[in-house]
Specification:
The protein is of the alpha+beta class and 108 residues long. The chain has five helices and three strands. The chain has a domain of 75 residues: Arc Repressor Mutant, subunit A. 33% of the residues lie in helices and 13% in strands. Helix 3 packs antiparallel against helix 4. The longest helix has 10 residues. The relative contact order is 0.12.
Length: 108
């Protein structure tokens, strides 16, 4: 004969914090400055920030900021960044160095 299932106890309501303490934002909890809070929200924005530099970025630099494999970074370049309206993805290969990628506004 199968055992009867145990029922969970009803959840107890949480007690209010003494003194009516308000919740603080992440920046207030960690003590970070406002400038530190202005960071890319995701890996695509981090890559765009590197690609927007005048010297652009290498595949290795993009891998370092995302933690992705080379084929995944190339997929981001071809599948996402290349298709953003108003941006042009440029690629340059010099004889003495790695390939460099950069983006520029299409109207420039």
């Amino acid at each position: 004969m199968a055992k009867p299932k145990r029922r969970r106890a009803a959840a107890k309501p949480r007690a209010a914090k003494p003194g009516g303490v308000k919740r603080r934002s992440a920046g207030q909890r960690t003590g970070k400055k406002v400038a530190d809070a202005i960071k890319p929200r995701n890996k695509t924005e981090a890559c765009l920030a590197l690609l927007a530099r005048p010297e652009g970025a290498t595949l290795e630099e993009l891998q370092g900021v995302t933690g992705w494999q080379p084929h995944s970074v190339r997929g981001l370049l071809a599948g996402t960044i290349k298709k953003i309206p108003g941006l042009t993805l440029e690629s340059e290969k010099l004889k003495d160095g790695p390939r460099r990628y950069r983006v520029r506004r299409s109207h420039e």
